[in-house]
Known about the structure:
GMP Synthetase, Chain A, domain 3
Amino acid sequence: MVDMTIEYLGDLRCKLTHGPSKTEIITDAPVDNQGKGQSFSPSDLVASSLGACMITIMGIVARRHQIDLSGLTASVTKEMVTEPERRIGKITVTFQFARNHTEKEKTLLERAAMTCPVHKSLSHEIETPIYFKYPVGGG
């Protein structure tokens, strides 16, 4: 169990505090929903959490199998829908590997990513295309 607190700062902004580490994050409503868009919106955090969670789970597997993930990045695109209600409609995650990997390593890493708890927790109504890109000519 992890405790977190959220304080409303006014003007559609919140301060989130992670209990164990006391790390703080400020959220802001997006411009298209009456905010200033000066920080992550709550739905931005959901989308970016998916990519971060997937990389973290791949990192656990990589550590276990001595696979070098240095230079791995992910880009995340969140798309909102408004009908029948405003919600996240699609989160696209693209992983770009900096190093070549064997087919066995690719299978391990890709399967690991798809077991991430955030991915498993998202509504099936949210489309989640996931792409894994490796260097050209990679093993």
